[in-house]
Design a protein that fits this description.
It is a single chain. Helix 2 (26-39) runs antiparallel to helix 3 (43-53) and helix 8 packs across helix 11. The longest helix is centred in the middle third of the chain and has 18 residues, at 156-173. The chain is α+β, with helices and mostly antiparallel strands and 247 residues long. It has eleven helices and five strands, in the order αααββααβββαααααα. It has helices spanning 7-12, 26-39, 43-53, 82-98, 101-106, 156-173, 175-184, 189-199, 204-211, 215-229, 234-243; strands at 58-63, 75-78, 112-115, 126-137, 140-149. Strand 4 and strand 5 (140-149) form a beta hairpin. The chain has two domains: 7-181, Dynein light chain 2a, cytoplasmic (Beta-Lactamase), CATH 3.30.450; 186-243, Arc Repressor Mutant, subunit A. Strands 2-1-5-4-3 form a five-stranded antiparallel beta sheet.
Length: 247
């Protein structure tokens, strides 16, 4: 049986009361609470409420459409133990980078489960299996990772709810930071030109002749494009450009 607190008990801690006589579901109370957190830019408070709703023990919010070398810079918010965050962030980014664009799209908002690496220490009573839910905030690709108590029976419907609500909540609370980072990662006109000619099947030597600059400069532009788009090959960069209507 799923062992969660009652709706009233669970949400009185967030400032709600059942004294009005109108009994609301935990989902309705959560949505109302998230609205309050969003107004106050309370990202961590809202994520803790989402974690409690699905009876998880810890949350980790990652942005993984950035360079795999970014490391802890990809962590948006977390209450996981620091050593676990440092270990898992790189593993998740590496796993995402190996997925095809189709698989990434099919996996959106779908709760998936994986196991922590052997030897990684976990808090006492916490399962080594964790849940990851991917979603988009604008053009940013993000994931919510949840830890659970051992031997806990999960609610799939609540996990799906959490994916949708986290996406909306993060879009409100993280919008400013994401927009700033997006501006820093915007492609230049030259980089977009190189992407266009790559998509047309041109080599670096051919693009250099077309644009009237050196081959080394073209390769530098292409390297910059792949760094900014978190892609590893020219084909992946073209797929990213098509998805974002740049070519």
């Amino acid at each position: 049986m799923e062992t969660i607190r009652s709706d009233v008990t669970a949400w009185e801690s967030y400032g709600f009361s059942a004294e009005s006589g109108e009994r609301k579901s935990a989902r309705e109370l959560l949505i109302k609470h998230l609205g309050r957190c969003a107004d106050r830019a309370g990202l961590s408070t809202g994520l803790k409420a989402l974690t409690d709703y699905v009876s998880a023990s810890h949350y980790l919010l990652l942005r993984h459409d950035v360079s795999p070398e970014a490391g802890l810079e990809t962590v948006v918010a977390s209450d996981w133990p620091f050593d676990m965050v440092r270990s898992i962030a790189g593993a998740v980014l590496a796993s995402q980078s190996r997925m095809s664009e189709l698989d990434k799209c099919l996996g959106l908002l779908k709760p998936c489960f994986s196991h922590l690496a052997e030897g990684m220490p976990v808090p006492k009573g916490i399962s080594r299996e964790y849940c990851i839910i991917a979603f988009h905030v604008g053009r940013a690709r993000m994931s919510l990772l949840l830890l659970f108590p051992e031997h806990f029976i999960l609610s799939q419907s609540k996990l799906r709810d959490v994916g949708v609500m986290t996406g909306y909540f993060a879009s409100v609370c993280c919008k400013g930071a994401i927009l700033r980072q997006d501006r820093e990662m915007e492609l230049t006109e030259r980089e977009i030109e190189c992407l266009y000619w790559i998509a047309e099947g041109k080599t670096s030597d051919e693009i250099a002749v077309i644009l009237g600059i050196s081959r080394n400069t073209i390769n530098n532009y292409i390297t910059s494009v792949m760094r900014k788009t978190a892609t590893k090959t020219r084909s992946e960069a073209i797929a990213w450009a098509v998805r974002n209507s740049l070519v």
